Amino acid sequence: MKVFVAGATGVLGRELVAQLVARGHEVVGMTRSASKQELVRSLGARPAVADALDPDAVARAVASAEPEVVVHQLTALSGRVSAREARHLERSFAMTMTNRLRTEATDHLLAAGRAVGARRFVAQSFGAWRFARTGGPVQTEAEPLDPEPPAALRPGLLTILHLEEAVTTIDWGEGLVLRYGSFYGPGTAISLAPDAVMAAPIRKRRFPIVGDGGGVWSHVHIEDAAAATAAAVERGRPGIYNVVDDDPAPVREWLPMLASALGAKPPRRVPRWLARLAAGEMATVMMTEVRGASNEKAKRGLAWKPRYASWRLGFAQGLG
Ligand SMILES: NC(=O)c1ccc[n+]([C@@H]2O[C@H](COP(=O)([O-])OP(=O)(O)OC[C@H]3O[C@@H](n4cnc5c(N)ncnc54)[C@H](OP(=O)(O)O)[C@@H]3O)[C@@H](O)[C@H]2O)c1
């Protein structure tokens, strides 16, 4: 198939393009920068240069590719977020720009896909930290989202809702949304690279277990996230899918094992009140209250199975 990937040079985009090409698809990969065209070529795809926030440029890039499937993997999340910014994440450049990519750029890509007669649209969403904090530890796509999310998450969650609704309600094709778990593996925030955004503070013991460490996280290896996305390009009914591993687990369980895999000392423990004072409400809720996600629907509906079924194996063998 002819596939247009917006965000082809990102952590997930690079892996996805390589997998799509290996599966025999003809891929056009979008980037803002003329200088990254060679990277796109090296993955086996044809580059298209366009700013995702420029509707005319997006329309031209998509039209030139004549794709059957459009994939949206645009974010601005790879930039570094300081501890101060994390407290007010909604004001950070990374979030402000990502919010525009999830709203404006989504609308531009959908309009462009419709105009060229694409029949499928697959978009990146985010699963963690969004479920209501009332049900069981592991939740499905059918379960309600948190009606009272921490203030720092609210603007971002609204833009994700926009993306999810806009994509899953298209009437000119099939819209699929993938709610990824927390990425780990080469190039991501959790990897063996010395500057990996989340691994670095864990190595310095600046990523403690808060309270009882009961927040349940769903992880996914970057190769598995890309494989699920490639599957969603090829098959699956319209709708929302959690793309996570088989093993949602509380922070108190996975964080010490991750620290050990990174060669770090065990994480410190801090009481909830202190974490709230030092790091704010969002970080405290993420460490103590959030729920994990079930991948049953993605396994069944996309005929996908994570190679790293559990982060236990992935942290030991797949950090890169
Ligand atoms: N995705 C998540 O759910 C998530 C959540 C938390 C943390 N993280 C971490 O953050 C990192 C994010 O990885 P990622 O692959 O999602 O993002 P990324 O590596 O920052 O990639 C973003 C992609 O979007 C493209 N892009 C951004 N703005 C654009 C614009 N205006 N016009 C055209 N293209 C634009 C970039 O293209 P060009 O630069 O080539 O133009 C790039 O291909 C990982 O380390 C991950 O662990 C991810």
What does this structure look like?
It is a single chain. The protein is α/β, with parallel strands linked by helices and 320 residues long. It has helices spanning 11-22, 37-42, 55-65, 83-87, 93-116, 154-168, 199-203, 222-234, 251-261, 272-279, 281-288, 296-301, 311-317; strands at 2-6, 26-31, 46-49, 69-72, 120-126, 138-139, 174-180, 182-184, 209-210, 216-217, 219-221, 239-243, 249-250, 269-270, 292-293. The strands form five sheets. Strands 3-2-1-4-5-7-12 form a seven-stranded parallel β-sheet, with helices on both faces. It has a two-stranded parallel ribbon with strand order 6-15. Helix 1 (11-22) packs across helix 8 (222-234) and helix 5 runs parallel beside helix 6 (154-168). NADP nicotinamide-adenine-dinucleotide phosphate binds next to helix 1.
